[in-house]
Amino acid sequence: QVHLVESGGGLVQAGGSLRLSCAASGRTFSVYAMGWFRQAPGKEREFVAGISRNGGNTYYADSVKGRFTISRDNAKNTVYLQMNSLKPEDTAVYYCAADPFPHPLVVSTTSAAYNDWGQGTQVTVSS
To answer: In this predicted structure, what is the pLDDT of residue 105?
Structure first.
């Protein structure tokens, strides 16, 4: 099991940027593929971005492709989500999650693959 804590959320105007961080503790961080999900009020949780264990493979939801970048620093046990050109529809609670049994080549986009979740951080984008 790995313990995850997100930070970096806040209020930003449309077009602005935020960088989310997710610090992990517990089991060896580098064995996990990591993902970012989000949930807006009244909507289901959705996949945003994922990254493989060594950072070599990444995957993005179409809605954020070209605007968001996921990265990780295994030496710091941290995964990041750089969010640029933010839109009001990006407003949501953002969660990081750890996949303990990742496919060697494919990053999972389904929440069921992720066993451990952070508490979430609120991102609000004003128009």
So the answer is: 77
How many angstroms separate the Cα of 13 from the Cα of each of 68, 85, 87, 112? 16, 9, 8, 33
| pLDDT reported for residue 1 | 86
Whether the CB-CB separation of 116 and 1 falls below 8 Å is answered with yes
Q: How far apart are CA 43 and CA 59, in angstroms?
A: 22
* Interval 95-120: pLDDT, tens: 999 999 888 778 999 999 999 999 99
Segment holding 19, helix H or strand E: strand 18-26
What CA–CA distance (Å, rounded) separates 25 from 69? 22
DSSP code string of 70-82: EEEETTTTEEEEE
The whole-angstrom separation of Cα 34 and Cα 108 is 9
* Cβ–Cβ under 8 Å, residues 114 and 59: no
Amino acid 109 reads T
- Alpha-carbon distances of 103 from 16, 23, 47, 100, 119, rounded to whole Å: 34, 22, 17, 10, 25
